[in-house]
Amino acid sequence: MAQNMHRLISKLKEIEESPSLESAQAQAFKMRKNLALSQRREEVKESLIAYKGGFCERCGGFFENYLLDFHHRDPELKSFKLDKSNFTKPYAELTAEADKCVLVCCSCHRSIHHAQGDL
């Protein structure tokens, strides 16, 4: 995620230095908006991970945020996926959904789905 933000910042600087001011301003506005949204999503995921304890509930390991997933204990109770596409929802909705999940590392998450016959 940080690498993506660095790329967006570089592109933003490049656009702002382009000769067509109107075009540059429009593109710069769009890039700033995307950057702000990316930062918000990263902050929300970090907050939800902290809310769930910050470690894999299956193996007990501590991992970088990008290696942690929210696994729904009961798929029937799942209202929506807890991923970046939904991190713009109100925080209360996100924590309510997180309460239906266990926080697991990507390896444990894959093992859970394999055991359930999903993979």
Describe what you observe in this structure.
The chain has one domain. Helix content is 54%, strand content 8%. The chain has helices at 2-16, 21-51, 91-98, 106-115, and strands at 68-72, 101-105. Strands 1-2 form a two-stranded antiparallel sheet. The mean pLDDT is 88.
Taken together, the total number of domains comes to 1
Unreliable spans are none
Q: How is the main sheet built? A: 2 strands, antiparallel
Strand element count = 2
Q: Could you state the order of secondary-structure elements as H and E?
A: HHEHEH
Cα distance spanning the termini? 26 Å
Compact overview of the structure:
This protein is mainly α and 119 residues long. The chain is built from four helices and two strands, in the order H-H-E-H-E-H.
Please render the helix and strand layout as text:
Blueprint lengths: L1 H15 L4 H31 L16 E5 L18 H8 L2 E5 H10 L4
Antiparallel strand pairs: 1-2
Keywords:
119 residues, mainly alpha, two-stranded antiparallel ribbon, 4 helices, 54% helix, elongated
